[in-house]
Design brief:
single chain; alpha+beta; Immunoglobulin-like; 4 domains; eight-stranded parallel β-barrel; 9 helices; 44 strands; about 15% helix; EC 3.2.1.1; metal ion binding; Alpha-amylase; hydrolase; GH13_cat_dom
């Protein structure tokens, strides 16, 4: 074996479905402190899996998103030099060429800077460790290393690898997935298999991991752990240094389900990623979520020894688990994972793809900065997910209580008296009364960042849960009711006012509603009600306002520095009776004479090209492509988005395409024309010209 200051990492790309028996994941950390000691805004145990992000983007995400929202750790790609092929694939990094920390995701200096930035934000860093094997192909790596013999690398000599003698199979390939010797001594998909029973090899691997620990890395996800004996992994672990915080490095392992070997065989070496958990969640959210009541007895791993996930960078591509392409159902499955007390949860965020082998956005193979507005699906930033991370931290180790299955699509459960969540996986809103176990009072709904509130009276809450959404609240800041939360019968009763405002914003801006009554801040901008951007560019929220009351209101924007920008139109006016009201507006468009039009267009695009609508109205960008409305590709090749326009108004519009470099392509032909009516719920059905 060559002497080196570092060492290898774990697993090639994920064995495809055909080789599924090869794959696996693992892990679980200690749960946060009980509620009495927990602060919902501080870091807990939730792991953000940003596996495809380059180092600069991870650093920015730790600083701007993960730390402020209470994530405990970030899991990143292998920091090593890997095979650079003529065609780029996402799994290239699972073919390590050398254990130099300069690679596809950035330089060694950028890696160290990323670790420091995450630590400054209170976020630990776990790296993917590919230490079972090296590259199956010869060529040149991302830092210039050239290999002509796959068994002779900068880190390893030919005698550091298993041969057909140890494999007991002449072709050296794993053929029999029930044969432990083959699984652990033969080559997975032709990847040279390191002889981890050799102490020199163990020392070399430990040196590589210790080099990362010296930079500040807090732990490792061990790739292809199933393909190494647990005794070898424990021997390597014994050679690892303590982290810069003074703790042992946290270990979680990829062990695909199967009896040879079983995931439970690896508990002594660290936690294990729970593939069965992700499969059960997928089955429930694509079937009956009420089935999740029996989750603990469904074959999932023990919570103290496991790390849960809804999907990851391997399984989102082979159909084994859910993916961002499942849309709101995928988001809702992550809400459940964060609410349910089980193992340590991970939230995966990656790039959009149209083929299973597709590489992340890159320049000459080197991953470019993450752009959540194009080419990436940034679930970790979603308001419902960040709200649930805080909810999860506040709930701590409280047990699941008050489970209620209202239908096959609607469930609710609490975590002691610490928090409650109701989930609606159905296609229409649902109203039910839930026994929450919570103290009486008014709570903000973390799913929409507090734009709506929940009232608990006598321990019960009557909730109207939107389709494919949830309502969640916890015992943090809330307004107690005293002896009762029943509405008084003295003329001070309230009704719900739903505010919807079409308002494009710049980065860092949020939209608020403020008005003449106390419920809307009494014109005090510091007490304005923040709206949710979940339907951007439409901002919405619900406010309890007095019945039989006339009031004025207006929308405003606030940026991260607190600068306030008022809309320039006159004060808007509204009046309540004894029924709920809805107020639909557009920024700087005179009061409520507005309606919604959903634009639908069938349009095929190249990778990283998006479709927009632009038109003659201010709410359609006034023909300025820079202000065009981005359409959603969730139902590709149909692109759609709801836009607020004035009622009973005729206008013209067209669709445009914009690629990643900003080049705009207008559709051909004359302008399209449409006339909005005086009610609501209008839609177009178009095909790109």
């Amino acid at each position: 074996m060559k002497r080196r200051p570092h060492s290898p990492g774990f697993f090639r790309r994920a064995a495809t479905a055909a080789a599924a028996g090869a794959l696996a994941l693992a892990g679980a950390v200690a749960l946060p402190a009980p509620l009495a000691q927990a602060d919902a805004t501080t870091s807990g145990d939730v792991i953000a899996n940003l596996w495809s992000y380059n180092w600069d983007s991870v650093a920015a995400e730790c600083t701007d998103v993960l730390g402020p929202n209470g994530y405990g750790a970030v899991w990143v790609a292998p920091p090593a030099e890997s095979l650079k092929q003529t065609n780029y694939y996402w799994w290239d990094v699972y073919q390590p060429y050398s254990y130099d920390l300069n690679g596809r995701f950035g330089t060694a200096a950028q890696f160290a800077s990323m670790v420091d930035a995450c630590h400054d934000a209170g976020v630990k860093v776990y790296t993917d460790a590919v230490i079972n094997h090296t590259a199956a192909q010869t060529g040149t790596g991302y830092h210039g290393t050239t290999i002509t013999n796959k068994y002779d690398t900068p880190d390893w000599d030919p005698d550091d690898f298993h041969t057909s003698a140890e494999c007991a199979d002449s072709d050296l390939i794993i053929d029999d997935w029930s044969n432990l010797t083959e699984i652990q001594n033969c080559e997975l998909l032709g990847l040279p298999d390191l002889e981890t029973e050799d102490d020199d090899v163990r020392s070399g691997i430990a040196a590589y991991l210790n080099k990362q620990i010296a930079v500040g890395v807090d732990g490792f996800r061990i790739d292809a752990a199933k393909h190494m004996p647990v005794g070898d992994l424990n021997a390597i672990r014994a050679k690892l240094d303590d982290t810069t915080s003074g703790a042992e490095p946290y270990i979680f392992q990829e062990v695909y389900p199967g009896a040879t070997p079983a995931a439970s065989d690896y508990y002594s070496a660290g936690d294990v990623l729970d593939f069965t958990y992700a499969s059960r969640v997928k089955s429930a959210f694509q079937g009956n979520v009420s089935d999740l009541e029996s989750l603990p007895s469904s074959g999932v791993l023990t919570p103290a020894n496991s790390v849960s996930f809804v999907t990851n960078h391997d399984t989102e591509r082979n159909g084994l688990h859910m993916s961002y392409k499942d849309g709101d159902t995928y988001r809702l499955a992550n809400v459940f994972q964060l609410a349910y007390k089980w193992s340590t949860p991970t939230v995966y965020s990656g790039f959009e793809f149209s083929s299973s082998d597709q590489a992340p956005p890159n320049s000459n193979g080197f991953v470019t900065d993450t752009d959540c507005a194009g080419g990436w699906y940034c679930l970790q930033r979603d308001a419902a997910v960040t709200g649930m991370v805080k909810w999860h931290n506040a709930a701590g180790s409280e047990a699941v209580t008050n489970w209620s299955s209202k239908s096959s699509s609607v469930i609710g459960f609490g975590r002691g008296s610490a928090g409650y969540v109701a989930i609606n996986n159905g296609s229409s809103s649902a109203t039910y009364t839930f026994t929450t176990g919570m103290a009486d009072g008014t709570y903000p709904n973390v799913i929409d960042n507090g734009a709506t509130t929940v009232t608990v009276s006598g321990g019960n809450a009557t909730l109207t849960i939107p389709a494919k959404s949830a309502i969640a609240f916890y015992d943090g800041e809330f307004t107690p009711c005293g002896t009762s939360c029943e509405e008084p019968d003295d003329g001070t009763s309230t009704v719900t006012a739903t505010f919807s405002e079409y308002a494009p914003t710049t980065t860092g801006q949020d939209v608020y509603v403020v008005g003449s009554i106390a419920a809307l801040g009494g014109w005090d901008t510091s007490k304005a009600v923040k709206l949710s951007s979940a339907g951007y560019p439409i901002w919405s929220g619900q406010v309890s306002v007095p019945i039989n009351t006339s009031f004025e209101f207006k929308y405003l924007k606030k940026d991260s520095s607190g600068k306030v920008t008022w809309e320039s139109s006159a004060n808007r006016s509204a009046a309540t009776t004894t029924s709920a009201i809805s107020l639909t507006n557009s920024w700087n468009v005179a009061n409520a004479n507005a309606t919604d039009v959903t634009f639908n267009v069938t349009a095929t695009t190249d990778w990283r090209t998006n479709v927009y609508v632009v038109g003659s109205l201010a709410s359609l960008g006034s023909w300025n492509p820079a202000d065009a409305i981005p359409l959603s590709s969730a139902s590709y090749p149909t692109w759609s988005k709801s836009v607020i326009v004035p009622k009973s108004t005729s206008f013209e519009y067209k669709f445009i395409k914009r690629n990643s470099s900003g080049t705009v392509t207008w559709e051909s032909g004359t302008n399209r024309a449409y006339t909005a009516g005086s009610s609501s719920g209008y839609a177009t059905t178009d095909t790109w010209k």
